[in-house]
Every structure is written in C-alpha cells, then in structure tokens.
Amino acid sequence: MKKGVIILSTVVLLTGAVWADAVFVPPVPDVFDLDHYYAYTWGMDLGFSTADQPIVEAVLTFTDIHNWRVENDHLYVHLLDESPLGLKRRWDGQGGGDYFSGKGILLIDWNDPEEWNKTKDLVISFNADQLAALNAYGSNGKIGFGLDPDCHYYNKGISFSIRTYMPPATVVPAPAAVMLSSIGLVLVGWLRTRKSL
Fold first, then answer.
1. Sign of the C-alpha dihedral, residues 26, 161, 154, 70?
2. Contacts by 69-72 with C-beta closer than 8 Å and gap 24+?
3. Which one of 104, 150, 153, 197 has the minimum C-beta count within 10 Å?
4. Can you tell me the distance from the alpha carbon of 149 to that of 24, in angstroms, rounded to the nearest whole number?
5. What is the pTM of this model?
6. 86-145 tens-digit pLDDT
7. Which domains does the chain have, with CATH numbers?
C-alpha cells in the first residue's frame, strides 16, 4: 500500500505598522518676516485623519529667527482647531498682547534673548499634552497655527514636520481559507485513524 504524505501549508500575512513622515511649509516661508502689526494664521490640510493615523511626533521650527533689536518682546504661537487653509494675515494694530488669547492652545510665548545672534532656530517639539490636542484637532484632517509677533521677528523660514503611526491592519481570514484548513484537519485526522488500524 502506498503511503501518502499530505502537506498543509499556512500562509501568514505579517502586517506591520506603517510610519510616515511629512513636512509642511507655508506659501510664504518666512511668513512676511512676522511684522508686529499683523496676526497670522496658517491652516493646513494634513491629507489624513489623525483618528485613523495618529501623529506621534511633531516639531514646529523657525529657522534663523531674531528680533529686530534687543527688547522684551513676544512671539505668541498657538495651535488652532479651526483656521482657514493657507497663510492669512490680518492687521491687528497691536504693539502688545496676544491676538489669539483664548483660542486653541498656546504652544509658546517666546522672546529673543540675543538679537545679535541671527543664526539661531526656535524649535518647538510637541509634548504629550500638545500631541493629544493636535490629534484631537486633526481628526477632520485639518489643523492651524496662530502667530502673533509683538515685534518684528525676521526669519529664514518656518516648517512643521510630523511623524505618524498607522496601526497594523486586522487580517480576517477569508471563508475559503477557513474551509480549506478545516478539510485539511479532517483529512489528517482520517489518515491518523486509518494508520492506527
């Protein structure tokens, strides 16, 4: 009697998490050199919902930023839930005060400690609370920043970089695969029973 060997192969699909990086830059990279008589909004379409693809790292960077002279001035930077898309500026006529006070969350109230140093960067790395707010705001795929300089802050560009995490997809076996596995198990059981007789 011929002995047959049945080999059952299981195909396992390994689905890992997907990490993605993106960098956003406003249409006017230096935001008009942040003139202190204006308040600015920068709204962006992320291209995804943070409910499906959470942001796990976020950094807002102002490159080579400096005040026009040494004095105790402020640059208020807010994360906003609602903001028109693109870069907008509106005359606020303010020499002081935070135009976006009470709106969104204040990320930083910054003062240039050394006007003569024109090569420093202001780097705002989001902490856990700020990331939580960012993900809550971005659930509709859109977020914004509010910038209110209470002096003239020259700079060579602003960028917003993020890293996102997409959880691995849940693999549900197809009905045909379940049926094929069941048939294979029955066949193996039948062969064992037959062999023992």
1. positive
2. 69/115, 70/112, 70/114, 70/115, 70/116, 71/151, 72/111
3. 197
4. 21
5. 0.75
6. 999 999 887 678 999 999 999 999 998 776 778 899 999 999 999 999 999 999 999 999
7. 18-166 (2.60.120)
